[in-house]
Amino acid sequence: MQGKKPTLLKGTRDFAAPQVFRRNYIFDTIRHIYQKYGFLPLETPVLEHLTTLTGKYGEEGDQLLFKILNSGDFLEGVDSHTKDYKTLLPQIAAKGLRYDLTVPLMRYVAMNKDKLIFPFRRYQIQPVWRADRPQKGRYREFYQCDIDMVGASSLLCEAEILVMIHEVLLQLGIKDFTIHMNHRDVLKSLATLGGATNQEGALCVTLDKLDKVGKDKVLEELKGKGFSPAALERLLFIFDLPATQVDRWPILTKQLGLTQKGMQDMQKILDYVHALGLEEPSITLDPTLARGLSYYTGTIFEVKMKHTNWGSLGGGGRYDGLTDIFGLTGVSGVGFSFGLDRLYSVLEALDLFPSSMGSTTQVLLANLDPASEKWTLKALTTLRTNDIRAEIYPAVVKLKKQLQYAHKRQIPFVAIIGEEEHAAGVITLKDMRTRTQQQYSLEQMLQELS
Fold first, then answer.
1. pLDDT in tens, 57-96
2. Element housing 414 (H / E)
3. How does the average pLDDT of the chain come out, rounded?
4. Same structural domain, 88 and 189
5. Are 282 and 307 in the same domain?
6. 115 and 201: one domain?
7. In a domain, 107, yes or no
8. Which residues contact 206 (CB under 8 A, 6 or more apart)?
9. pLDDT digits over 321-337, tens only?
10. What range defines the domain where residue 269 resides?
């Protein structure tokens, strides 16, 4: 009987060696810079109690949680006549896959508050899962690269994160980016300016669609939500701001007022950024930025590429009270998260990955015959002892086949030790890139490969 053809779950992916090398390059770059800024690593479990996860991401987020059926007979004790899934769910599933890294962090902080040193600076690079509809660039399993400072209310924290974002992107070779920054108090002021003091949520949800649907559609939707023509007229300035920060600032302060807390906070952050040595930061104050409204209470960040539709490379902001739900009150924090897949797409499209990541092996040792195998294994051990990435072809086959293997694997060198080489005390080293070869002693070959 023929077996069923294997397939992947939609929204998940396999990663072959070339992709893994490239992903690790991004991880290593981010991890190095996170650690340079004093952040400590943290890992949390794949699974969390559903009670930990539900109610933290809004109603839509709850729908996107992957729930895990209880072990054994998960239907035991369940009323067979129950049709409402909301009633049924707590009876058959008590666990779920983590939706993001922030809520597990808050749970961890609340559980370990007496052991941690505050402010607690942590970074976390792990996968998360969302039961979203798979589409191009959107997956059900993906990595987030988070940093957070928990227990610190100083705006210097925001400035450090903004400087660090610059360093990560520039280190990866990404230059044509902008960090959009806004503040919840600015959004509240816009709602008041639009005559809708109690409709901040409606305004923000609609503004969040600006990149996707455009200005006209946003204004049309706001009108449908009860914003009057006069109110919309007062809000038009946010859609037509000048490109440069120098020209934006006087317009924003005129419209929102010099005493507006959000504007004052963002000016203080920019002052800190300059003091940290970033004289010309790629930061723009964007009053239309509205994201993470279920938990961000102060500043909001989002990184976007200029002149492209790649979407966000990452986002973050300040949150107050996220640990309240776990019994730890009065804790403020600020964080940011890079999305690995977007970074990967940008580096690939702009050809920014280093060209030397195609193979882990520097040299393949040919396996010519049983007698030569003994000498070759001794050379192999010496190479590895000297941190040369080396492997031996495991079977005695024709040299042509071994060279083809090295070519397909993009291994740059093949070392050949036959009877003649052994008698002369040399090794023939073939350069697969130039198709040339030369004989060396083992010590000389070590120097050449190093």
1. 878 888 999 998 888 777 777 776 666 667 777 778 889 9
2. strand 413-416
3. 90
4. no
5. yes
6. yes
7. yes
8. 218, 221, 222, 225
9. 888 888 899 899 999 99
10. 17-43+99-349
